[in-house]
Prior knowledge:
This protein has 10 helices and 21 strands. By secondary structure, it is of the alpha/beta class. A 10-stranded mixed beta sheet has the order 1-2-21-18-17-16-4-19-20-3, covered by helices on one side. A 6-stranded parallel beta sheet has the order 6-7-8-9-10-11, covered by helices on one side. It has a 3-stranded mixed beta sheet with strand order 13-14-15. Strand 6 (105-110), helix 3 and strand 7 (158-163) form a beta-alpha-beta unit. Helix 5 packs across helix 6 (283-290).
Amino acid sequence: MNIKPTAIALSIMTATLVAGATEVKMISSTPDAQWTEGGSVAVTEFNTDVMNDVMVTRYPAQTMQGFGGCFNELGGIALKKLGKAERQRVLKALFDSEEGLNFTVCRTPVGANDFATEWYSYDETPGDFELKKFSISHDKKHLIPYIKWALEINPSLRIWASPWSAPQWLKTNGHYANRADAINGLDPSKEVPTGNDQMILDPQYLTTYSKYLSRYVSEYAREGINIYMLQFQNEPYTFNIWPNCSWTPTAMTDFIGNYLGPEFETAHPSVELWLGTMNTDRFDHLESMLSDEAMARYIKGVGVQWEGKDIVNDIYRKYPQLPIIQTENECGSGTNDWAAAEHTYDLMKKYIADGASLYMYFNMVLADECKSSWGWKQNAMVVVDSKSKKATFTPEYYVMKHFSRYVQPGARRLVTMGTDENLTAFQNTDGSRVVVIYNPEKEARDMTVSLASDEVISVSMLPQSFNTILITD
């Protein structure tokens, strides 16, 4: 694995120049040096006679909820391979607001996902409609400790959840997956491709499933983990070999509006229900679901991932009352290289520009080859070497940090004008502004950015560099 170890050190160049008491901090990352002083930045007075490359206006767009990642079981196991000091270093690098990524919202699976140790749910007893055999004991081995470690670093971290699959006996093919493969043992005759319902849609089964999800929230609360939001299904449009479940729009609408919504309204009125995680570009499907009043009354937001990125702006424009979050980054193939960081940057830029208020990485931590239990190598922000008991931070860790470190919950994205699309700007509630710029060229690059009609920052960026500029008055 070609990952160059780097220290998680903050080396910042600070300039206090002209234009009143404006202070500017600039941090850069290149393939050879991450999160360090690089390039230069100066502040000058705005000149109406000079055309600048980009204008950061004062027009606010969406309100940001922040940034986060997903607690996966294999990530918890990877952390357990480390000694206490090294594990604590990694946890602070992820969750600490000063030294780390400043994550504010994180996701956890309900039962097994593709980065669990194996298939499991909380009740695999056929016909147990009263859920007498329900148990989260499996999660207490690796997943719950992982979440609690994070909460020790940041007690205000908000956690939301989504299932990849319901218990097998609630499904039409009696299996956790919908696509056959030797690794999961599903008979090809029992495949359930996208466009079909894998859930048994009998009222007794749907009632049981709504109570199953409600019970999950209650049991996690007993563990001291408060789930603030639930999205009822990870990728209802996925046809693959790991835990998942196919749903049609009609079935989704019925389940949320007539079963899950009423159950949570009674049992967990403070827990938000969101429509997600939607991995489809079929905006018409989403429109048809949200047009159903029985379902729509329970929906507090929309979560999208993968193919869903193509309809973020459509949702943002038509449903301004519903916040939108990106729920899972495109996970890569275990390369953990600079090209993967560039891809993640492009995704973050697109989601945020189109109206998403939260961006989430999937595997925060993995070990060694970064391979799932179902054989898929994916990228991670932190990779643990099981032999050396050391952790390495990949380029994607630093790309996330360039956005997440200074953009606080409640920040507003600021509309920008100009020909360069590799710039995203925000204003925090304390008035500070954050500008993130990428220079993809193999040569250094100069850029001028006007801050409304106040000042102009002149930036000199290193070749192939991600850059964060914090501006305070």
